[in-house]
């Protein structure tokens, strides 16, 4: 199990409703893996994700890779409106930063909310807290980055709506940008015929959204208002 090497000090982020806690396998992995296994069909229709049968699979295939990358960090999301401890049933999902580049002052956000907490205050507040940390200037406790991206399968309407709701702007569609899970995405029969291959995964067009620093002052009050609404 590797020690996180993220470019920035990864500190706890929270308000009265949600806490984002740096993911600690010794505390968080058991409940997380249990909920992942229960929610595979709902969570990963549009996302390629390793097969997770046991805690060791998650540590090896996901956590250790994130921890070894200076550009990546992972938070566990907890619902503070319940009375349970952080290792129990208020585990609401995870949120991450990837491809973080201090030289260019950019990063990419990703979020997984467990089904029981979808369409609640969790997503709005978790994303909002991370946006405040990313885009607020250092004088206000933020990282002062210039750009945060949100990437999603172009057919994932729920993810696209969530990005727009949280102030992200659609920049465009990257065609055939990556592979998709089996059964989801663009067919590859013609590609296999051309390349003389078999068993290739489907492809996907990726919708790219962003928020940038010079629009953040305008967008920030709207994000806070959404968080105040608790949904």
Automatic annotation (TrEMBL):
Coiled coil: none annotated. The lineage of its organism: Eukaryota, Fungi, Dikarya, Ascomycota, Pezizomycotina. InterPro entries: Acyl_CoA_acyltransferase (IPR016181), GNAT_dom (IPR000182), Ribosomal_N-acetyltransferase (IPR051908). This is Acyl-CoA N-acyltransferase. Pfam families: Acetyltransf_3. Keywords: Acyltransferase, Transferase. One of its GO terms (molecular function) is protein N-terminal-serine acetyltransferase activity. Residues 45-169 form the N-acetyltransferase domain.
């Amino acid at each position: 199990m590797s020690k996180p090497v993220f470019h920035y000090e990864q500190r706890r982020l929270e308000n009265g409703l949600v806490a984002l806690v740096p993911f600690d396998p010794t505390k968080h992995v058991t409940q997380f893996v249990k909920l992942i296994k229960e929610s595979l069909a709902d969570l990963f229709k549009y996302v390629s994700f390793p097969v997770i049968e046991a805690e060791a699979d998650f540590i090896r295939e996901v956590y250790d890779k994130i921890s070894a990358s200076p550009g990546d960090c992972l938070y566990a999301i907890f619902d503070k409106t319940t009375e349970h401890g952080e290792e129990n049933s208020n585990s609401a999902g995870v949120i991450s930063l990837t491809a973080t580049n201090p030289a260019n002052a950019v990063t990419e956000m990703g979020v997984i909310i467990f089904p029981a907490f979808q369409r609640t205050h969790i997503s709005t507040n978790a994303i909002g807290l991370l946006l405040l940390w990313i885009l607020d200037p250092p004088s206000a406790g933020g990282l002062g980055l210039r750009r945060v991206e949100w990437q999603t399968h172009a057919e994932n309407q729920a993810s696209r709506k969530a990005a727009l709701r949280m102030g992200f702007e659609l920049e465009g569609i990257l065609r055939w940008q990556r592979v998709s899970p089996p059964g989801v995405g663009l067919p590859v029969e013609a590609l296999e015929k051309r390349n003389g291959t078999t068993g290739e995964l489907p492809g996907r067009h990726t919708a790219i959204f962003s928020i940038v620093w010079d629009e953040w002052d305008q967008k920030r009050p709207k994000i806070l208002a959404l968080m105040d609404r608790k949904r």
